[in-house]
Each structure stands twice: as structure tokens, then as C-alpha cells.
Amino acid sequence: MMTPPSTSPCEPLVHPPRFLARWYTWALAAAVLPVPFFVTIPTGLRKHPVIGPLGDQLHIPLLGAVMLVIYWKGPLRGWLWGSAAAAAVVGALIEFFQIFAERAPLLHDWYLDLVGIGIVLGFLLWRGAGSKPGLVLMTLLLFYVPWNLRDLPADIRAREIVVRSFPLLDGFENPHTRILWGETDEANVSFTAIDDGPQGPTSVLQITGEPPETWPGSDMAHFPFNWSKYNRLMVRVRHTGPDALEVGFRLHVADFIGRREDLHFTQDYRATSRWQVFTMPLAGRTADHSDYVIDMSDIEKVYIYLTRPPCKTTLQVDEVWLE
Predict the structure, then answer these.
(1) Which of 95, 116, 248, 291 has the maximum number of C-beta atoms within 10 A of its C-beta?
(2) Which are the contacts of 173, defined by CB distance < 8 A and separation ≥ 6?
(3) Percent helix / strand / coil, the chain, rounded to 5
């Protein structure tokens, strides 16, 4: 009968390879593994359509390696569950201290840390104790990686389209770019073809919200980040309600640091049932209620949302562009 793995310090279920036998190897590993989490990533790499998403996945092998270091060397040597818990704490602390290294602490990154820790945990249970649940855990989490990246090819194609059309952020004519627009505050975001566009038949982004929603809207982040050559953000908008109704909506722009610190600039508008072009000046903008100057060379995200819709309301957006 196979003995289950111990929950107290003991000999490791699986021993480290021989090349890790020397003490300085462990010291080097402990010193080097956290470094990628605190190095400032160049903007071009962070925004790259392939390197950016794949870089996030580095959390998985790196935190798996951190768990192995804890499990194979130190006071928790051989303590499987204690090592897994300690590695999870290390991952959480890394996210916290990224605040001081101009990196964005994200709960999603910690989830990736847990995936890497879970893969190593499953492997050790399977190889060291012959545990079938360990094999199942490891296999399921290994499949999580390609599943998490399943939308990457479509995302890359959509970003390339936006790069080619820039300074047009989107005219909503190409169906491939629609995956780049998200939903905020339970808004219903959709795309539809209409016959009565400002210049005839066209496709539009529709944002529908109703009480008690406060800021139903849509956001988009996957555009060229350097806006320093442009002075205005432009949108062409109307609502689909009665002619006498005016609907409040807001444009919201944040740079990379500002988004992390909740620093952004906004501007309010009133849409009617007629197509209108609304302008948001960009030059020299500071964050709302702050003297923080928005970095126009590193714009992170654009939001368009309704401001406290008084009734069920649909805002149609025909184009978003820079001038």
C-alpha cells in the first residue's frame, strides 16, 4: 500500500537534479527568480501584441521554480503543502511590492502564480507519491496555458488592423477588431449594421445601459500607445432614443501609470438623436483633480460610457479617431 505524502518536514518526494547540489546554485536561484517581476518592462515590449501576452505567462514557470527552491532547500525542505503555501505568499508579496517598481500589481498575475505552483504540486504528488489526483491536477493546469492563450491569434490580427488604420482607433467596419472592445459596469455592448449612418450604411458600436447602472460603457486598450503627435480625440456619436432626449456620455483616457494609480482625465458630453462629432483636447492634459500630467507617449486605455442613464438608453458610436 502506497504511503501518502507527509504534511510535515521530511525528505523531498522528488530530489533535485545533481547540477543543483551546490549551495551557491540555490543562492543564485533565490536571488535571480524574483528579478523579472521588478524590472521595468520597455513600453514597446509591454504593448507588443505577442510578447505582451506571452510575457504574462512567465508567472507560471517562475513561481513553479520558486516553489521548487522552497521545497528543495531551506526550513520547509520536503514539506509539500507548506512549500506550496509559502510560494503563494511569495507571489502575493511580489505583486504588492511591484507598486514600488513602476509595475502594475494584478490579481490576474497572482492567479497565474497559483497555476505554476499547482503544476509543480501535481508533478511532485504524481512522481513522488504515485498520486493519480496529482497527475490530473498537473495535466489540467498544463492545458490551462494554451486555453488561456486561445484568443491570441485573433487578438494579434485585430491589433495589426488597428495599427494599419491608426490614427483611426476604430470605424467598426472590420469585424475582426470587435474583440478589442470590452464592457464596463454591466453594459450591453454590441455591434450592428445600420442604413442611416452619417455617410450612408455603416457599422457601429452600441452601448446600452439602464438604471441602476451608473457608468455602463465600453473600453479599448489595444491601439498604438504614442499619442504625442495628436491634439484631439474625436468620436462620432448619436443615441437611438426620442428626438427630444439628450443623453449624457463621457470619454475617459488613462496612461499606463495613471491607470495603475487611478489617475485619468475625462470629459462629459450630451448626445442627441442626430449624428455629431465630439472633440476631446489632448495637449497638456492633467488628471482629473490632480496635477499629474498625462503621458501622451504611453496611453493605455480609452473608455466611452453613459453617465447614469435615466432610462434604457443605447449610444451608437460610428468612429473613434485622433487628429
Answers:
(1) 116
(2) 202, 203
(3) 40, 25, 35
Residue 3 included in any domain:
no
Going by C-alpha positions, the residue among 71, 65, 46, 67 that lies closest to residue 222 is 46
Q: What is the span of the domain harbouring residue 261?
A: 167-322
Helices and strands counted in the chain (H then E) = 9, 11
The Cα–Cα gap between 194 and 208 comes to 16
Contacts (Cβ under 8 Å, ≥6 apart) of 166: 223, 224, 322
302 pairs with which residues across the strands? 220, 253
CA dist., res. 121 & res. 141, Å (int): 11
Residues 59-94: pLDDT tens digits? 889 899 889 988 988 889 889 999 999 999 998 888
Residues 87 and 193 in one domain: no
Chain mean pLDDT for the chain = 87
Q: What is the pLDDT of residue 17?
A: 81
Residue 160 maps to a domain: no
Report the amino acid identity of residue 299. I
Residues 117 and 198 in one domain: no
Q: Measured in Å, how far apart are the chain's first and last C-alpha atoms?
A: 74
Confidence class for position 320, pLDDT limits 50, 70, 90: very high
Is residue 89 located within the same domain as residue 173?
no
Question: Which of residues 89, 115, 150 is at a domain's end?
Answer: 150
How many domains in the chain? 2
User: What's the predicted TM-score (pTM) here?
Assistant: 0.75
